[in-house]
From TrEMBL:
Gene3D superfamilies: Glycoside hydrolase 38, N terminal domain (3.20.110.10)
Pfam families reported for this sequence: Glyco_hydro_38N (PF01074)
Sample GO molecular function, one term: alpha-mannosidase activity
Lineage: Bacteria, Thermotogati, Thermotogota, Thermotogae, Thermotogales
Domain of life: Bacteria
Name of protein: Glycoside hydrolase, family 38
Amino acid sequence: MKGRLWRMLSEIVPYTVLRIERIESWIFSDGAVERIVDPSFEWDFSSAPVWFRKELEPFSAAGEQRAYLKLWFGGETLVFVDGKPYGEINEYHRMLNITPLADGKPHTIEAQVMPRGLFGRPEKPVFTEAFFIVVDEALMKVVKTLELTIKTAEVIEDESLSKKLLDISEKFLSKVWIPRDTDTYLMTAPEDPGIKDEIKNTWNTPEFKEFTGVKLSEELRNQILEEFEKFKEKLDRIRKDHPSFGTIHLVGHAHIDYAWLWPVEETKRKILRTFSNSVLLSKLYSEFVYTQSSAQMYEDLKQNSPELFEEVRKLVKEGRWEPVGGMWVESDCNVPSIESLVRQFYYGQKFFEREFGKKSKVCWLPDVFGFSWVLPQILKEAGIKYFVTTKLNWNDTNEFPYDLCRWRGIDGSEVIYFSFKNPNEGYNG
């Protein structure tokens, strides 16, 4: 049944894309020469970072439409709009929401590219794709909600709840009507995630026209949205029959190792990419909250992009961005001397108080392998009440017995300890 539901849902996916068109004739620069290039262009990684530039013509994204750039230049990318950091592209996230740019004006898109993946792995420096895409946000919400419902039914242990979720999903999908004529089918099939891989593996692969987007008739679109409202009502009734055990709060975060698999200069570029992306998400989603440690990273941001730093400062004031850690960087806590640890918190908290008007209450060390027994005393003196880690859960021999507890130091100082203990051994969603 689940497989059939996925196949039925995947048939709707192509209709979320109203328009898709290639963006060609980019200006490529390696710092020495400029040239006009198109997708399939391979560049020399020895001159990295390199730049791609394009003038984006005015576009519209009215009502429930959203506009995106789908890009891959051959590595981690910071996208600038009109000279200002805007957002990030990496191997896992190649779509960038540009709906805020639908203001009737042209915009200059610049991409600073490093031929590396998120973990420093070399990438083949090939410019493979650049598309402008307009999606139907209402239909996209339908797809995402059904995806989440079916996935929830697949993983929960409550068989009664699972059956109810699958039943309402099937009833909704059975009432969805999309065009079945041959021409439309041939146009949408390559964009249907349920069958596109099967198509590629056939003996005689059909030749399909380039997909440029497709729009449902208002009648069919309204029918889907009306049925979706009924689906949500059923979902609400199920929620009342199966009350929650609590509330889950999801907070954005990026763990950036300051000096691990790449040089410090690349860390500074990663900071710009990550922070600009988080600021963009805060503009797109009013409920978005982000947390980030390490005073040094904020100092780097302030030096390299003062305007972006001011946007972060504004979000901190609004309570939508939380500087955590209280330390200059997320440091090792086994090897350094006590004086070194004290200075970490002294300079870190001094920076947070000066720049954001408050000290951090949370010591944030998710990726540290061990901790000095004097740490609670240092934390208390630094004004920190809470201690967060996760690496102790990785022990394969001596399992750490606690997840949430009070950690008492040798002088009696206490902090609240939390370690995100879960089957996946981590703090990621």
